[in-house]
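re the bet — no i am not wrong, look at it urself. input seq straight from the record:
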Amino acid sequence: MTTPATHLGGTSQRGYLDLPWGQVHYRRSGDPAGPALVVVHQSPLSSATYEEALAALAAHGLHTVALDIPGFGMSDPAPEPWTIPRYADALWQTVDALGLGAVHLLGQHTGAIICAEAALRRRERVRSLTFQGIPLYSAHERREKAEGYAPGYTPDLDGSHLRVVWDRVRGLYPTIPAASCTRQVTEYLSVGPDYGVAYRAVFAHHLDTAPLAGLPTLLLHGSEDVLDRMNDVVTAAFPDAPLVRIDGGTDFVAQEQPDAFADAVAAHVLAHTTPTPAVFTPLYTATVDVSGGRAGHATSRTGTLDLPLTRPAERAGDSTGTDPEELFAAGYAACFSSALTVAARRRRATVGPLAVTASVTLGTLPGGTYGIAARLVVKAPECPQPLLEELVETTHTLCPYSNAVRGNIEVITETHGGT
C-alpha cells in the first residue's frame, strides 16, 4: 500500500491555466498523444488524491489530467457560489484551455456529479465515463443533507478549529492512516472555513441519468468507499455499467492501490478508444522459415520448432502436421495466461491454478476473402468469479495478442471461476 503525501505537491507534472474566474491548477501524466482522461476529485479535497496513480495510468498509455475544481486544492475560487451546471461548463472551458478534444471523464463523488452533468451538456465530446462513487441521493436525502452536512469551522487562536477538521476527517474515514488524514486536513484548510460550497451545489442539483444511456460507463470504487452503500441505487440508474469494487480500498483507493486502480480505469478507457499508432520498443524477435505454404514445413531459426504443415481440409486423426490457426491458438493462450498472472500480481490477488484454452477459427468473409475469429476459455476454480472477470478484462489491455487483434477480429472470452 502506498503512503500518501501529507501536502498538496507531488512528483507529477503540474501547471496552471488562466480562466475567466482565475487560475486552475492541474496535474498531468502520460504521452499527450494517448487517450485523454480528465479526472475530477471529490470535495473538499483536490487532485492530490490521484497523485500516486498518475504514473500507473501513464504506464497504460493514457494521457491523464487531474484537475483541481475551482475553489479547491490550488485552484482559485469562483467569484460566487456555483451550481453544478456552472461547474460543468467550467470543466469544458478547462478542457478547451488544455487543448483537448474528445475525452474520457472520471469523477469521484462531487466530481462524478460534475462529470455526469458535463456529459449531458457535451455528449459528443465524451468517449467514456468512470464514476468513482456517484451520490444519487433522493430528494429527501438532498434536503436533509443541505440542512447541515458540512457546517464549516471558525478559526480560533487556540487552534481548536484544527481539531474540528481532524475529527470530521477521522469520523468519515476511520480506517485511513494518519498521513492521509493530515493531507486531507491540509486540503480542508486550503479551501477555508466554508468548505461545503460544492456540497451545497450537489444537494441542490437533480441529476437526470436517463439521457446518459449509451455512453460507455464504468462504476469503480474501493469496497470501503463511503458511497459503496449506494450500489443498488447506482446500478439501477446505470444498468449496463459494470461495477468494479477494489477489495479493501477506501475513498482513496487511487493512492492506496494505484496499480489496481489504474488497471481497471485503463481497461475501460482503452476498450472505448480508437487505437492510435504507438511507440514500439522491440524486446524479442522470433523468426520462422516456412516453405510450401499450408502444406509445407515450418522451422524456427533456433531449431526448436521443426514441424510439417497440413491444410485444414486434409487434416486426419493420425496427422502429424499442424497449421497456422493451431500455432496462433497456442501463442495466444500462452501469452494471455502469463499476462493474467501479471494483472493478478498488480492487484495483489491470488488466482490459484489457471488454465487458458484458445480456439482459433478460419472462415470466409464477403467478397471471397478469409478471416479468423478467436475464443478464449479461462478457468481458475479457486479464484472468485467476479475477481476473475475483472482480471480478464485487465489482461486484454496487457496481452500483446489481444492488443494486436483488438478491433480487427472477434474475440469471445469465457471465464470460469469459483464461488
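see?? The two ends are 27 Å apart (CA to CA). told u. also The mean pLDDT is 92. so pay up
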